[in-house]
Design brief:
By secondary structure, the protein is α+β, with helices and mostly antiparallel strands. About 35% of the residues lie in helices and about 25% in strands. It contains 17 helices and 19 strands. Strands 8-7-6-9-14-19-18 form a seven-stranded mixed sheet, sandwiched between helices. Strands 5, 10, 11, 12 and 13 form a five-stranded antiparallel sheet that branches. α9 links the parallel β7 and β8. α6 packs across α7 and α6 crosses α16. The protein is globular. The chain starts with a strand and ends in a 5-residue tail after the last strand.
Length: about 475
């Protein structure tokens, strides 16, 4: 069952391409595939892993999520290469009559593969990757060797699609001299990527997989001063997040930690004053205290009284994993250009808090949603909506401009030129929408993925 919620928002955007100035008014139509049902009781092994993530000492929420997703033995992605589906062949959209035929086809392949989900780049291969390749072609400085990093390359479908496109459409010297590096934390997915790209023998000399955590600075080596591209498709949603809590509307924010209960079999939350450096930097970027600091004393008193009469606890999820990753990337790749795509909205989220995640697994073609992130035991995906306004602020912060902007004595301009597009607008500009259109004109890439967006960020020399 597919659920739609329609919301229209006008967001005028400008971005300079070789086709000129692209001016858009984005219409946000929220869309996602969710079939909620009650999850089955955990097995003994799953329950043990859930509690063994936490030792004798409490850990931050981001460390709990990281273990649940990426633990080398029991983590969701580390051991479940099948969690990301791989289609046997590309979908021939022009042979499908319309939406009903497409939905039946999709239902059949989900049941056949019994996997958690297919990424857009997989469902629409090779056309989705070709759109990204075209965006790179139009923007990259092709006078220097093209170098592309992909973070979390999944099954390698994007890498192969981009290499195919460059081989067929770029000048020969661009393809012959290019380098494509996949940074993949999962050994099983890394092996699948090598097999996928290796289907075209000439790609192998240009492609390699580095099996490591992209957010670990030590894995990157020396700072690279040459221009390069970084691609992150559905990566931000799986990056660890932190959680902060306030008992009412005026109480200070507290860090949330996870600890074992005395029975050693269940987990609970522990609240501490803000002290973690990543959390405090994220709070600074979001400026969460701005509403309180600029209020008059009478307004503050009124808020205090109201909070005591009608207390309303607050919970806010912070993309600290994104902040850490972009700090590392800006530090080692200061001249990088970035393309990131992800979900801007997730419906039917049962977990409380702003930007709360879905904790979900899939069995027999049905989604099974958990009511708490603490229930994640390595058997469930934990994915968050991406706040693209916040992503842009984090990007500017990590580039160094945000701090300079706070210093009134600095008159330097932004170091990055950025734009956020919904997926349909991006593909209409850079892709070939006719390739994903059915006989009656229905186009799932343009019509269905309305809760996904693409973020582009390139360096600029306009800093005076």
């Amino acid at each position: 069952m597919f659920i739609r919620t329609l919301t229209t928002t006008k967001l005028p955007l400008l971005f300079l391409t070789r086709k000129g100035i692209l001016s858009l008014s984005l219409s946000l139509i929220r869309f996602f595939d969710v079939i909620p049902s009650e999850p089955s009781p955990p097995t003994l092994l799953e329950a043990l892993f859930s509690t063994h993530i936490v030792g004798d000492k409490p850990i931050l929420v981001r460390d709990f999520i990281h273990s649940a997703l990426y633990d080398s033995t029991h983590g969701y992605f580390s051991q479940r290469s099948g969690s990301v589906g791989v289609l046997d062949k590309s979908i021939r959209f022009n042979q499908l009559q319309g939406r009903k035929a497409y939905m039946k086809y999709l239902d059949d392949i989900y049941k056949k593969h019994d996997i958690a989900w297919f990424t857009p780049v997989e469902l629409f291969k090779p056309w989705y990757a070709h759109g990204i390749a075209e965006a790179i072609m139009r923007t990259a400085n092709l006078s220097v060797p093209l170098k592309i990093y992909e973070i979390g390359g999944g099954s390698g479908t994007c890498a192969k699609g981009i290499l195919d496109y460059m081989m067929l459409n770029a000048p020969a010297k661009v393809y012959n001299n290019m380098t494509y590096i996949s940074v993949e934390i999962s050994p099983s997915l890394a092996e699948i990527q090598r097999e996928t790209v290796g289907e075209v023998r000439t790609h192998l000399s240009k492609f390699r997989v580095e099996c490591r955590d992209a957010a670990d600075r030590s894995g990157w080596g020396d700072v690279e001063q040459q221009p390069c591209w970084v691609i992150m498709l559905e990566v931000l949603d799986n990056l660890p997040h932190d959680l902060i809590y306030s008992e009412n509307q005026v109480s200070p924010w507290m860090e949330v930690w996870v600890e074992k209960q005395r029975d050693r079999e269940t987990l609970s939350e522990l609240y501490k004053p803000l002290q973690d450096s990543l959390i405090t930097r994220c709070v600074e970027i979001m400026d969460l205290e701005k509403d309180h600091s600029h209020q008059s004393s009478s307004m503050s008193k009124a808020r205090s009284i109201w909070s005591k009469v009608f207390p309303k606890p607050r919970r806010c999820w912070l993309p600290t994993g994104c902040l850490r990753l972009l700090e590392v990337l800006h530090g080692v790749l200061p001249k990088m250009s970035l393309i990131a795509s992800d979900f801007s909205y997730l419906p039917d989220v049962r977990i409380p808090g702003e930007r709360a995640p879905l904790v979900s697994t899939k069995k027999d073609g049905n989604s099974l949603d958990y009511g708490s992130y603490l229930d994640a035991k390595g058997d469930a995906d934990i994915f968050f909506p991406t706040d693209f306004w916040l992503l842009e602020n984090i990007d500017h912060y990590c580039s160094g401009w945000f701090k300079m902007h706070q210093d009134n004595s600095s008159k330097q301009g932004k170091k990055r030129r950025t734009i956020t597009l919904d997926t349909s607008s991006f593909m209409e500009e850079f892709g070939l929408p006719s390739k994903t259109r059915t006989k009656d004109g229905y186009n799932p890439l343009l019509d269905d993925f309305k809760n996904t967006k693409v973020y582009l960020s390139v360096p600029t020399h306009n800093i005076k």
